[in-house]
């Protein structure tokens, strides 16, 4: 841990990329906000709550909550003013986090063109058309995108065989390595001969698929011009015509693009989007909170006759909901992440942004909103809304036991959740499965490199902001939640700092919209103060059975805060700085998928292997598949 904390920002930036630096900066500012709120909760709010006599004795948990005070107690005004003061506190501190340099440079010299018709999918047509519309623009390079979905899969198999063959070649003097060609068979053959044969077969298959891909250009092109001003002028002044309905935008960086997903059409993507989100909504609608299962246990106990009636154990009724809540909160982001991966986003930044927003929305309902209302699922909320005959017992919401429920959740997330994140069970399970399915030990080195993935910023942003929101929302009603929330954010910061540097690969979502995930994470912190004012206003109105002065002040403060957030944007977005003129002359990246390069160029990160790529190397650049579809490398 000491080594992790001693890491400098420059070291993290060089090793893990700019996204890691901005993510850790976000957590540092959250720690500052939570430290101030924790101090206020323990020093100011907790002693005031102890002044009441409504909930138990001094040893009971309810004695520390706002429910311990009389509804007409003047001490409740302190809670009102503290909650209102938290609004500028969160805004001013998080504004600093979002206003800092994101260490990103937008690829402003390259334009991404989409919706190109099949007749115009060649470089000469695109160049002539752009030069005709903008004769003063100097076009430096044009690259087309190709359908490489099959090629990408086959190329991965080819690399696996090449590295396994090299491993066998380097270890032939020790002992013979055997390989099991078929997983359900016990027959083994010589590994070197097997991988050498497979390499030759796959090399020919890769060459064939590459030639086929180069003859199948997509309706996407990347145009690199000389300066930022030229690129911006082309994008602003280009108007789609009746014949060429092209769409122009600044291009993401090549490393941010999922090249194999560019072949997914917009219509097909939206069909998949509707199907995925419909399934996720059904899960949210029918089984949102763990209280649903606990209620089933209670129902079973009440439905038995006198001879068979049993009582649910306190361990089940108290600890199980909290543990299940944390388990579902950890499982939901995984489900969302895998579903979004199936959606085939074009860029990593867009995929992370989608995972973050959807995960936070589901967690907000599953962990905070519905349990606070005493509902088991969104289905129960809809049934209560439609069935007006049933009178809802508003006085039963926001009780001390609900506060204990959320305190238990934050404790579980702080001590169990962060520890499991350090172990990284999902990656461990995938690694074990890949080892079990490996045909020989010669493939282990390739497996170790293939599991080096990027840090899932979308999931971790959603988790962090969710615990922060839960802690802040109940910081006034239940001040004991804040120390554990502070413990969580500190543990989370150390664990993420370690994982970013030692466990995950570098991340550089440097597209023009790549910083959107960071700015949106800052924006999501505003939900904490909005929900805090909403809950306090509801509690004031319910406990006094009407709108008194405190409820009116809180409602007015809520309206002013929403207006401020919606129209005045007090929290600046983490938009990336536009490159200065000096950056215009920097070499523009080449917009060609790695699988279209020759092997010695596409896999420079594996140069540590002796003799890598020296045998049976396929020069994929030698086959261009035509004049207009060739790749200039």
From TrEMBL:
Main location: membrane
Name assigned to this protein: CSC1-like protein 2
GO cellular component labels: plasma membrane
Domain CSC1/OSCA1-like 7TM region, first and last residues per copy: 272-539
InterPro entries in alphabetical order: Csc1-like, CSC1/OSCA1-like_7TM, CSC1/OSCA1-like_cyt, CSC1/OSCA1-like_N
Source organism per UniProt: Hermetia illucens (Black soldier fly)
Transmembrane stretches, start-end: 30-50, 75-94, 273-293, 319-339, 360-382, 409-434, 446-466, 472-491, 521-543, 549-568
Keyword field: Membrane, Transmembrane, Transmembrane helix, Transport
Localization (cell): Membrane
Domain CSC1/OSCA1-like N-terminal transmembrane: 2-93
